[in-house]
Amino acid sequence: MSIKDRNEHALVVNQVSKRFCRTSAVRGISFSIKPGVCFGLLGANGVGKTTTFKMIVGDIAMTRGSIHVKGFSIKSNPTAARKEMGYCPQHDTLFDFCTGRQTLNIFLLLRGTPRNLLRKASEKLASDYGFLCTWTTRSRITVAALSES
């Protein structure tokens, strides 16, 4: 893939492979996604869908190949690459024992937000998505309790 191709596509996965010991989980997968496209991977159990997504978001290292998100390499510049993507994991990742504020702060930290900006960033997100009033009046309620109501 050329530099031009990497910059014109939101995501470029090029000849990516992943091995776990002697087991090949992903073998030479290549695809690209245009900007603004929401996508998923379909296939039978055990064919490498989850492993592929984990490599794309940088949760696990690839054995071979390259992944670029808006031109940023997930290998050499993972922080910049992660700032350009949204990811909905396979399983619910909200922690039942955390409040909404705590959960949001965890994810902000995971995505590289400096600690001194957590309050401002989390309140802006709460305001932008219309739950700031709930945020302040129900700040001690856990995510599990909110999802039940």
UniProtKB/TrEMBL annotation:
Q: Which GO terms describe its molecular function?
A: ABC-type transporter activity; ATP binding; ATP hydrolysis activity; lipid transporter activity
Coiled-coil segments, which residues? none
Give any Gene Ontology cellular component. membrane
The family database entries (Pfam families) matched by this protein are listed as: ABC_tran
* Domain ABC transporter positions: 27-120
Q: Which InterPro entries match?
A: ABC_transporter-like_ATP-bd, ABCA, P-loop_NTPase
Q: Which domain of life is it from?
A: Eukaryota
| PANTHER family to which the protein is assigned, alphabetical | ABC TRANSPORTER DOMAIN-CONTAINING PROTEIN-RELATED, ATP-BINDING CASSETTE TRANSPORTER SUBFAMILY A ABCA
| Protein name as annotated | GL25568
Native source organism of the sequence:
Drosophila persimilis
